[in-house]
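Lecture 7, part 2: worked example. A protein chain together with copper (II) ion.
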Amino acid sequence: MHHRKLWTVLSVLVMAAACGGGGDAPTSSAPAAPAAPAFDPTTAGNVSGMVMIDGELPAAEELMMASDPACVEAATETMSNTFVGSDGHLGNVFVYVKEGLEGQSFPTSSDVITLNQEGCRYTPHVLGLQVGQTLKIINSDATLHNIHATPAANEEFNMGQPIQGMEFERTFNAAEVMVPFKCDVHGWMNAYVGVLDHPYFGVTGTDGMFDISTLPPGDYVIEAWHEALGTQTQNVTVATGQTAEVSFTFTAP
Ligand SMILES: [Cu+2]
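Predicted complex, written out as structure tokens:
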């Protein structure tokens, strides 16, 4: 751990030194100011839209919880969250800006994002947060859960929460869509966490709707991710004061 921290510090110093060589680097004569905002929010635009499914939404599968009587007792909902939606609209789709924000930086939100284990399910099932933003993981059940995240770009972790009311917090160091979460005690429990280096993402509700607001004007690639149906992308241009509409349609399996 200490080595990693040291390495990070050294990397930052090296990068700072490299950047400092630039001819147009700001001089130190200006009064110290907070890092410049990535853009002027008064120039912002928005993206909103809908995710649909072409064909019949697969029936949700019943989660078999009999292996843990505490789950059977606690569960208020026993159907899988993989396919949710209504009237051709698809929920639990992570929609985010995949390309177009390179080179810009955005403040990390101080909002704490909560992932709850409740009735032996993760709530929410799909969520997003920024690099460095706090994820609070809570066990609301009177049974043992373990939270086993299996990222590719971030550090794997596997933490037990044997007691109701336990919680702990994690952050992620790298953007990654998506980080899978599972519980090794209850094989039906899974969740997906999208980690981004910007705040421009949303998750569709059962109405399939999403909103990504207060974007810098520009050209973007928007990606929609679904755990079983894969990904789709669309190009969109965001103009000041406008809301660009984007729709995605996945084909039912
Ligand atoms: Cu569990």
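The domain at 42-251 is CATH 2.60.40.420 (Immunoglobulin-like). Residues 74 and 119 are 5 Å apart (CA to CA). Keep this in mind for problem set question 3.
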